[in-house]
Design goal:
Length: about 350
């Protein structure tokens, strides 16, 4: 089918999504233009900031692609103190970021649940409710989700990584800690508790096809997500999946495919929040800006205290590990202005999609 016919459709089907992801030349350009128009019309040309606090690189899991997996003995493990987290939250507030994201490896214990709960209460008090709070702390029990929600977190990010079960199983150990169905169940529970739910996938994984990615997009719609973060897979030499690097497509192609995923998702789910993933910038210096041009409307500047940034390396060549939060803020302002969008300072910038469901 002709690309313009596809883009004019009310409801995209599987074959349409595959065609959009495969688009090259003028067709690719038409996709990007359609995504930019959809963004302007449905969410506006505003980029919202979520100050990213990389809470801890301690993780109980062993995802085969991830640099901070449990069995990587070469990473120095750290956990931020309460004071450091509070200071980062205060920094976000003072710099008019509307929201923060507290992200870390998966830790599950009653003490951990309580610690996060206490931190949430403290952050809520210090910001007088002005800071939106997103959590990205892996799979937890329903009770833990509920307690964190009640303590003031209102969004949760948990990537499905790949919605194709066979591929999910190829990139995770096949043990009781990495069960595809558990991940699905976690996403269901988060929604039930009342969170705005974000998920996402890695793009350019070994053995991943355009059909897999089209299915991922359909999965997002099926479970009716509010937010999405997806970026290129970037191999890390201290991980098992590094052994499969020969079968990967070139980094530039993974980058381009990630842009097409963002653009296609914008056309497909018009009013959700889509993040310009940091991993894009590991490949292309203006990668995040390019994603903003084709549909992304969220950026997550790193506000982790500088000394720890180098230790939170999920993938190699991660940007901003040498910068301080102050440097990133100034840099981002200039970068986003160059895209032609404005920054949504002092605003939560919630998913409009979620808002319409309430
Ligand atoms: N390349 C790209 N993204 C990665 N992540 C983990 N390891 C890598 C990698 N090597 C992503 C996962 C996870 C998110 C926090 O980081 O998708 O959900
Ligand atoms: Fe842990 Fe997340 Fe890395 Fe998996 S991807 S090892 S859960 S930090
Ligand atoms: Fe970190 Fe530019 S965003 S230095």
């Amino acid at each position: 089918a002709n690309i313009h016919d596809i883009l004019a459709k009310q409801e995209l089907e599987f074959n349409d999504l595959v065609a959009l992801l495969a688009a090259t030349g003028d067709d690719r350009k038409a996709l990007f233009e359609a995504a930019a128009r959809t963004k302007a019309e449905h969410v506006g040309n505003v980029v919202y900031l979520r100050g990213l606090i990389e809470f801890s690189n301690v993780c109980r899991k062993n995802c085969l692609y991830c640099g901070i997996r449990l069995d990587n003995k070469e990473v120095e493990r750290y956990t931020l103190s309460d004071e450091q987290i509070i200071a980062a939250a205060r920094f976000a507030l003072e710099n008019r970021y509307g929201s923060i994201v507290i992200q870390g490896g998966e830790i599950t214990s009653p003490a951990f649940t309580l610690r996060i709960e206490n931190l949430l209460n403290e952050i809520k008090a210090l910001s007088d409710g002005k800071l939106g709070i997103t959590l990205s702390l892996g799979e937890q029990s329903e009770d833990t989700y509920q307690r964190w929600f009640d303590a003031g977190a209102h969004r949760y990010l948990l990537r499905i990584e790949s919605s194709t079960k066979s591929l999910y199983n190829r990139i995770h150990p096949n043990d009781e800690n990495h069960v595809y169905e558990d991940r699905l169940e976690a996403l269901r529970l988060l929604k039930k508790v009342g969170f705005q739910v974000g998920t996402g996938v890695m793009i350019g994984l070994p053995h991943q096809t355009l059909e897999d990615l089209a299915r991922d997009l359909m999965f997002f719609k099926e479970i009716d997500i509010d937010m999405c973060g997806m970026g290129p897979y970037i191999e890390h030499h201290q991980t098992p999946l590094y052994a499969e690097r020969e079968s990967l497509m070139p980094l530039q192609d993974r980058f381009d495919l990630a842009l097409k995923m963002v653009a296609t998702l914008r056309v497909y789910m018009k009013d959700i929040n889509i993040a310009a993933a940091t991993a894009l910038q590991a490949i292309d210096k203006i990668g995040r800006e390019k994603a903003i041009k084709v549909g992304a409307n969220i950026i997550m500047p790193n506000i982790t205290p500088g000394v720890y940034r180098d230790s939170y390396k999920l993938y190699e060549n991660k940007p901003c590990t040498d910068e301080s939060a102050e440097e990133c803020t100034g840099c981002l302002d200039a970068r986003i202005t160059l895209t032609g969008d404005e920054i949504g300072y002092d605003a939560w910038g919630d998913s409009q999609h979620f808002g319409k469901k309430q």
